[in-house]
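Input record, target 12 of the design panel.
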């Protein structure tokens, strides 16, 4: 179908839907890549790229999604509009977090999402996803700088009770896993 009508958006969309019903996720990605190539606007390309994340995960072909994400993030409108780019930056971070070999890239991507979030709600979402990524790695010294970013942002974004709880948890992590009693004491001082 795509070979006969390589620029037919409707045909590519229908092919993606058909392949999804048969759980041919690699085939879904093929059709989505056509949709991405022929996307009329940057916003259309963004929507296609976001739809590619679950397909790539199902097909175990995350690199295809990552390549598409990079191409879309480089498009002018997306690159210049953080609120448009944010969902794709976060999706890219999630995709990278699926492979232990790309954990450093995932951590960097999650930190970027936290930093570049267009508003506090988006930042809270990015902080929550960073926390999910970090949860199994809290005892890994390589992830401690990321954990500190996570604790710090939690302490900044919550209501007073959430901030207190975040500071207490951070102080405990510093005193325990991270082994920095001085920083733990400083954080405890901020609680009182």
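The sequence produced for target 12 reads:
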């Amino acid at each position: 179908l795509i070979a006969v009508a390589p620029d037919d958006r409707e045909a590519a969309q229908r092919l993606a839907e058909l392949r999804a019903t048969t759980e041919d996720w690699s085939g879904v990605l093929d059709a989505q890549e056509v949709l991405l190539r022929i996307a009329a606007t940057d916003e259309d390309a963004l929507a296609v790229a976001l739809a590619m994340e679950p397909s790539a995960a199902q097909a175990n072909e995350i690199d295809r999604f990552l390549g598409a994400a990079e191409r879309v993030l480089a498009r002018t409108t997306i690159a210049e509009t953080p609120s448009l780019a944010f969902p794709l930056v976060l999706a890219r971070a999630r995709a990278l977090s699926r492979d232990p070999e790309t954990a450093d890239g995932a951590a960097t991507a999650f930190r970027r999402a936290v930093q570049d979030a267009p508003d506090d709600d988006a930042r809270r979402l990015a902080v929550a996803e960073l926390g999910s990524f970090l949860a199994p790695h809290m005892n890994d010294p390589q992830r401690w700088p990321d954990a500190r970013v996570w604790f710090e942002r939690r302490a900044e974004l919550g209501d007073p009770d959430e901030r207190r709880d975040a500071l207490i948890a951070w102080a405990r992590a510093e005193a325990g896993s991270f082994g920095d009693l001085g920083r733990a004491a400083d954080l405890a001082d901020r609680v009182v």
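The chain has a mean pLDDT of 91.
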